[in-house]
Amino acid sequence: MVTPVMPEQTFAGVEHWTKKGDVTLFLWQKKVPQGNPKGTVLFVHGSSMASTPTFDLHVDGRPYSSAMDWFVSQGFDTWCVDMEGYGRSDKDPSVTANIKAGGDDLIAATDYIMALTGVKSFLVYGISSGALRAANFAERKPERVAKLALDAMVWTGEGSPTLEQRAKNLARWQTGERRPIDREFVWSIFNRDHPGCADANVVEAFAEAIVALDDSVPTGTYLDMCANLPVTNPENLTMPTLVMRGEFDGIAGIDDLLAFYKALPHPAKQFSVMQGISHASLQQKNYMMVYHILQSFFEQPDPVYTGDGA
């Protein structure tokens, strides 16, 4: 059961760095101060912002705006990583950072975490294109993923008005040039689907944290999501999987995701529609609902009986 929000606890983070070939990747860790953790959560960010603004945001008067602090308070160790081209990881202007490259980043990041901590598998949460990156990683390294949570994901793109509009700039995404981002762009994420799902002070804090690290981001995920879908095969996701979809999300078409969900092979799969939420769920007014859904999935006990005679 999710415990009450108050009083808030905050936890110190630790910087880590690892290599993907010649590329340096930044990782951020927050862990339980003592005792054995319930598990290790790996958070995977989306197309337009680095990891710490997404998962370790702090907003005055809004307890546990940091998803990492929340999950540490609940007994989990937590990690996030800046994909190549974002935040404090290397930013070669020629690198487009597509979905497969994000999978490469997650393999490198988990190589490092496993060697450092002895962890053998992760509770993986990805949001938006981060969900596609997480799914790519899970397809390639299923033994490293104990449970997989995919939030605000797109599969084939069917029924996605946001991607329909974004595809009008396909020629721009195909150039490989980085696209600029600023506060106005961050606001557009919250205004395009259903204005009012997030408080203004939260959007401002989110925008400030994003632009402090990046004034431009790679175009590879936009290109993949406009021209190359599907980039993941649900039949290859052999672990318990949770599909999360905001009620008002303009990217994650519900029929598209239901078809994806039906194709998932593991019987311990879940589909959750999050009421009153648009696209960036962790920054919405109903963010505690997101934590509850995700934590419940991560903490669900293994079945005693599986129907196969065991």
TrEMBL record:
Arranged from A to Z, the UniProt key words for this protein are: Hydrolase
Pfam families registered for this protein in UniProt: Hydrolase_4
The record places domain Serine aminopeptidase S33 at 36-282
Which GO molecular-function terms appear in the entry? hydrolase activity
The UniProt entry, under InterPro entries, shows: AB_hydrolase_1, AB_hydrolase_fold, Carboxylesterase_BioH, Hydrolase_4
Protein name, please?
Alpha-beta hydrolase superfamily lysophospholipase
